[in-house]
Amino acid sequence: MSAPTFLPLLNSIAVNEAKGQKLLGAWAAATQDADLKAALTFVSIREGEHAMAFAKRMCELGHAVDEASAYQVFKNFDDLLACACSDTTDAEKVEMLTRGDSEQGERKDPFRNFFKDPSIDPQTGALLGRFIAEERDSGRRLKAEYDRVRAEGRGTSKPAMDEIASLKACVSSLEAELKSLRKMIAAGR
After folding, report:
1. One domain for residues 109 and 183
2. Domain span including residue 102
3. Residue 19: closest CA among 79, 87, 92, 73
4. What gap in Å lies between CA 164 and CA 174, rounded to an integer?
5. Is residue 97 domain-shared with residue 34, that is, in the same domain?
6. Distance separating alpha carbons of residues 13 and 54, to the nearest angstrom
7. Is 155 left (phi over 0), alpha (psi -120 to 50) or beta?
8. How far apart are CA 41 and CA 24, in angstroms?
9. Of the candidates 48, 73, 83, 186, which lies 20 to 30 Å from 10 by C-alpha distance?
10. Rounded Cα–Cα distance for residues 74 and 16 (Å)
11. 0.85 cut: is pTM over it?
12. Do residues 141 and 76 both lie within one domain?
């Protein structure tokens, strides 16, 4: 029996999802941002589950994962992993790990050609369908966090917002005191 024509797709997904798990897991371990950590951890676990599910499907089809023949999504994986593990700010990591692409959701759908192969069997098709839906969800989750981290990197962080609120409260207090002093002056005291 010959290898299914869709085997390279399954292989590439298995390899790159395993790398995604490692990369996002390393970043989650390095960040101090609780919300970012939660999103990275969730997506990392999902990436690992995808890697295992596709490796399992390949085994069921009589083939093993072959990293050397896989399409490599992460062209400079070692550099990205070093960045994820480093003490670089999360905003800088977002820029490096997304290649500065703040409009990730606007690019072409990377999954648009997954079902062009008419020989995909129902079990593999179901696996691919779940994978695509979960990847899109993971992308939305990460984009929301990346956008927040980018905004904080531009000076609109929660601590900065807390400082602004504190300053506003101080100004309000001073205005109230000034109003009180004006009343006292007007009353001739």
Report:
1. no
2. 7-156
3. 73
4. 15
5. yes
6. 7
7. left
8. 7
9. 83
10. 7
11. no
12. yes
Instruction: Decide if 4 contacts 119 (C-beta within 8 A).
Output: yes
Name which of 156, 18, 151, 45 is nearest 94 in CA terms: 151
Looking at the structure of the chain, the number of domains it has is: 2
Contacts of residue 115, defined as CB under 8 A and 6 or more positions apart, other chains included, come to 125, 128
Closest CA to 27 of 47, 51, 11: 47
pLDDT tens digit string along 120-145? 999 999 999 999 999 999 999 999 99
Give the tokens for residue 26.
Answer: 């390393």
Spatial neighbors of 132 by CB under 8 A, at least 6 apart, are: 111, 114
Spell out the residues 6+ positions from residue 125 whose beta carbon is closer than 8 angstroms to its own.
Answer: 115
Q: How many residues are recorded in the chain?
A: 189
The encoded tokens of residue 149 equal: 């981290």
Which token pair is 71?
């399409």
Per-residue pLDDT tens digits for 145-182: 999 999 988 764 455 555 556 566 666 666 666 666 66
Would you say 45 and 141 are in contact if contact means Cβ atoms under 8 Å apart? no
145: Cβ contacts below 8 Å, ≥ 6 apart? 35, 36, 39, 40
Beta-carbon count within 10 A of 45 CB: 14
- Tokens 């703040």 belong to which residue? 102
Q: Are residues 126 and 184 in the same domain?
A: no
